[in-house]
Amino acid sequence: MNLIKFLDEFTTDKLQEPNTSRRAMFGQLGSLTKKAAIAAVPFGLATMSNKAMAQSSSSVVDVLNLALTLEYLEDEFYAMALDSGVLSGNAKAEAIYMQISKHESQHVDFLTAAIEGSGATPVAKPTFDFTVGGAFDPFNDNGAGPATAYAQLLALAQAFEDTGVRAYKGQAGNLMGNPGVLTAALQIHSVEARHASEVRRLRGLEGWITGNQRGAGMPEATQAVYDGATTEANIMQGGLDVTSLGSGSPFTVDASTQAYDEILTGDEAVAIASLFIVS
């Protein structure tokens, strides 16, 4: 797991290198060509002016490439989950994973087209290890029984979706100078939030996050998803203690943390994703 190499992908020099390992465009969604994909990108996104790019010194492209890396991770994870056979026999879970897989594939293609349409180079797709060096085995029962693999598939999906939600939100401020990109990012962000809630429901949990709790059965390694610079347990919003709001009895701490979703910084999102990246 080479975090330095991963971080290096987001330097200006690396962004200028040709992409040699990116997934073929729209592989799961039909025979649309790259040209059609770029044409489908909102005009304001595909034609980011030199002035807008200079304003942020490539930070917009950095944000899009960070988002693309997270989408690569989710896209490959769901595709491997569906191919593994672990979901066979659970029609509801398989249908949900299938639909989420389609969404993540579209997100990859959309972000790739947006980056290329702006004249930049999409970051190369990393090589992922969803076992984290053998700590997990979500695609094989490996003698432990299919229930164990299934539980790990759900736990990892929750961690990835919760990371995506917080990471997209954390980058919103860096996109304020480009409304087209910001709008597109927020549209993906809200869908990732729906994914996170759906996966939590599959695990028998509530659809929202309580404090910095990752939920029963979640590996300790995923705790960073719920901590970070601004932990999900935060009860101070806009300088106000939100447990003091409401008529009658104050809101409980748990309810107050559930009502607000916190960010992950770019560095925090990279650190989490790097756990699953080998090159």
UniProtKB/TrEMBL annotation:
InterPro entries: Ferritin-like_SF (IPR009078)
Superkingdom assignment: Bacteria
Cross-referenced SUPFAM superfamilies: Ferritin-like (SSF47240)
Record-given protein name: Ferritin-like domain-containing protein
